[in-house]
Design goal:
44% of the residues lie in helices and 13% in strands. It is an alpha/beta fold.
Length: 275
């Protein structure tokens, strides 16, 4: 398997910051300017959502963003074209950071398995996160994806038993993704009193039973939470808070500016967010 941008990045011995963004949100034409803003702001990996009408893990903010994206004409083939344009520097500064797609099985099946993998590779996609792809049923798809040089990430939750954590770690190509809490994205449960110790124990359990790196998402919205996650994990994922930060933009340029301003707070260089 040819080493992709994710594999190369993860060779660096440091902590990573990952941003999740829904294409063409909140207004048409926002995708390329926002991607450029995220890269310039020091985001290490960009996750692009594939909008889907019946998500199982998305909270209300990402669900709304998906509906707006669909209304704005977003579809799987269009996302791949936007990634290709971003890699070529057509409409924005060339995007060189790893780009991964996060979506559900149905749109990928509808597109066509190997056709999707072929087109994703050609566009410059580095990997896939598919929340409703069970590890027990993923080995054929995983081997196909690896053949195309694409990283595949599997998910761990606070309820995942140790033997399954080890299996997920073995299957994930480069890293695994841990849900901070057993809830949907954007949850407020992360800051509940008494939950901190449980989350820390859970992440230490993951660390003790994995060999590859792992990142943590769901409910992470500011620098303080990022640093808390970094104390145990290898990376932190911010999604809902980014979408909230750009929600009211009326132009693509405004969306990009809002994304850059928000990312400054994540890097600890801007005014702290109150989201």
């Amino acid at each position: 398997m040819t080493q992709n941008r994710v594999s190369t990045l993860l060779e660096e011995q440091r902590k990573f910051l990952i941003a999740y963004y829904m294409p063409e949100f909140p207004v048409p034409g926002s995708t390329l300017p926002v991607l450029e803003a995220l890269q310039k702001s020091g985001i290490d990996i960009i996750e692009l959502g594939i909008p889907y009408s019946d998500p199982i893990g998305d909270g209300p903010v990402i669900q709304e963003a998906a509906q707006i994206a669909i209304k704005n004409g977003v579809h799987t083939a269009g996302i791949l074209k936007m990634v290709g344009n971003a890699r070529a520097g057509e409409g924005c500064e060339k995007i060189t950071v790893p780009v991964m797609l996060m979506g559900y099985c149905s749109p990928l099946i509808a597109y066509g398995g190997d056709c999707f993998l072929t087109d994703a590779l050609a566009a410059g996609v580095d990997g896939l996160l598919i929340p409703d792809l069970p590890p027990e049923e993923a080995e054929d798809f995983l081997e196909r994806a690896k053949g195309f040089g694409l990283s595949v990430v599997f998910f761990i939750s606070p309820l995942t038993p140790v033997d399954r954590i080890r299996r997920i770690d073995a299957l994930s190509t480069d890293f695994s993704y841990c849900f901070a809490v057993n809830a949907t994205t954007g949850t407020g449960k992360l800051g509940d009193a008494g939950r901190e110790a449980d989350i820390e124990a859970y992440l230490h359990r993951v660390r003790e039973n994995t060999r590859k790196k792992f990142v943590v998402g769901f409910g992470i919205k500011d620098r303080k939470r990022i640093e808390k996650v970094w104390s145990v994990a290898d990376g932190a994922v911010v999604g809902t808070a980014l979408l909230q930060a750009i929600h009211d933009a009326s132009t693509p340029q405004e969306a990009a500016a809002m994304a850059a301003e928000f990312c400054e707070t994540l890097q600890g260089t801007g005014k702290q967010s109150t989201l």
